[in-house]
Amino acid sequence: MTHHALVRPARLAVAVSLSAALAATGATADDGLGNYRDRFEPLPHLPPIPAENSLTKEKVELGNMLFFEPRISSSGVISCATCHNPALGWSDRIPRATGHDGQIGERNTPTVLNSGFLGAQFWDGREPDLEGQALGPIQADIEMAMDLEVALERLDRFAIYQEKFAEAFPNDENPINEQNLAMAIASFERTLNTPNSPFDRYLRGDLDALNQQEKDGMVAFVDNGCIACHRGPAFTDSHFYAIQVPGSKDVGRFDVTGDEADMYKFRTPTLRNVGVTYPYMNNGATETLEEAVAIMGREMLNREFDDATIADITAFLHTLTGEMPDFEVPALP
Amino acid sequence: MTHHALVRPARLAVAVSLSAALAATGATADDGLGNYRDRFEPLPHLPPIPAENSLTKEKVELGNMLFFEPRISSSGVISCATCHNPALGWSDRIPRATGHDGQIGERNTPTVLNSGFLGAQFWDGREPDLEGQALGPIQADIEMAMDLEVALERLDRFAIYQEKFAEAFPNDENPINEQNLAMAIASFERTLNTPNSPFDRYLRGDLDALNQQEKDGMVAFVDNGCIACHRGPAFTDSHFYAIQVPGSKDVGRFDVTGDEADMYKFRTPTLRNVGVTYPYMNNGATETLEEAVAIMGREMLNREFDDATIADITAFLHTLTGEMPDFEVPALP
């Protein structure tokens, strides 16, 4: 079980920049691991922004409202923030998502944090981007169970949503529509990033940001091949690999493509903030990070990690927990 | 339907104090309504604090965590904040509370805002104080459906809760217990107050804080007798009155006392923030404030208000919306 202190959402940017600046003066001696550091990339403050959905403050503000808006669920009490709960690492910390009428889905809720960096959305990659993702859970029978037309009608009853959609999409005659709903939510989600983790500070030159065990874990992570799939700024290649974790019968990407070659395949999950987004695996059946590391070694790398290696890699993974994004709970109409 | 702009939680205290100070210089001429103003009391920043549960920052911080903690529900996804949603006036804006497995209760969710000022909790007053109230919804089958012992065991698994309970209740050997759970949540709730509404500023001497229609509404509110029950700082006497609103068969306080005299009786609800805590009445069947005013005139005062009077009283009631409390969504373990 992972424990961490009550933290206030962000506001640490100044302090962190200062320590990064100090580190950049080169006060710390080299630790001889430059060839390992070169394999990684720090997390940018923003993910790539698609040309067809420019990131504007009007869309982000509207998306923030919609993300917390339970009236776009048929029960009127479930919002995006119910399962992507900002108090719980923007996920839900239960094995499998629980939605409309208490129905329990087949898969573990992925965090929204840094999801703009993913090359495919959902465990099975059935949507390429956040715009495509956003409308899925609203309509899914076991999640928000809502007809999109009804959702849009409900929003249209509020003058404030008429205003905010018009401001966010000034060229549209009827801005309250499916596409704009998706674009606004996706825009808000693209602001939910967690830069300046200890590991990012380390990559940027603060060589004291990781202790020796965490550095040993980084070395083991590279040398054992974890980095083959968990690479890039979000620690995922966004590709699909077959894996059947204990207790799972989920066929994964096969459901999307119908291609036998995709049987049991799932998209590599991000490891950013993995220390605060337990439980793990597509079915959420793995409670601890140590267990998850052991399973991945066994299933994906055909290795039995010894306890010391598991402890080192786990310590390293905890350094990927960044600053939680600043946000406001909106006052909804 | 009530509409209002997206507002950031509070941070207006300085600006408001300034305008109050300016008003206090007496720049505004008297409006001749001093004898009406004298019938009201502005909302204090804090409600009465019970001697047996002193308000400490440690209890408030712990209570803040627990208020947003879904692991004290049996599904693991429902917290106090689900129905008492800070985005929705700390209520849910649906007719009747929807809880565990989508079950719908018999009554409308009362707001937590200013609930420390109430002399009795729940629509039927079955608990005298917030400490008694706090444990009810956690255990109710149709709300969080949780066994308290299991809830406490879950909390006890997190080192951070062991620490925070010990800090909040330093004299207890085993601080993670029912009583302290209730005391912490109640302490947090006592901080959720909404001072400095336009009407409070008006009462404190800023005679321009209400426009003429709102002042006419105040006069009508007094002259028609609404103030007989809706009085004191929270606009409630916390007494019980028989009422059967359209569509309700709820016997109210009779269920608590078994006394025939309590049949259909409900506690006078607060009118603070009534503009943002729709829908109305014990069964939530009344959508607009205008309708609610008309029903109350008819049922409680035996009067048919004309449209102008309804409009005036409604305008007045909207001036009871105060500054939403500052709070942080906690980072839970």
From TrEMBL, chains A, B:
Extract the Gene3D superfamilies matched here.
Answer: Cytochrome c-like domain
* One GO location term (cellular component): periplasmic space
Q: Which residues bind heme c 1?
A: C80, C83, H84, H100
Q: Where in the cell is it found?
A: Periplasm
Protein name as catalogued: C-type cytochrome
The source organism is Billgrantia pellis
**Cofactor(s) in the UniProt record:** heme
Question: What is the residue range of the signal peptide feature?
Answer: 1-29
Q: Which UniProt keywords apply?
A: Heme, Iron, Metal-binding, Oxidoreductase, Periplasm, Signal
Cofactor binding: number and manner? Binds 2 heme groups.
Q: Which residues form the Cytochrome c domain?
A: 212-321
Locate the residues binding heme c 2. Answer: C226, C229, H230, M296
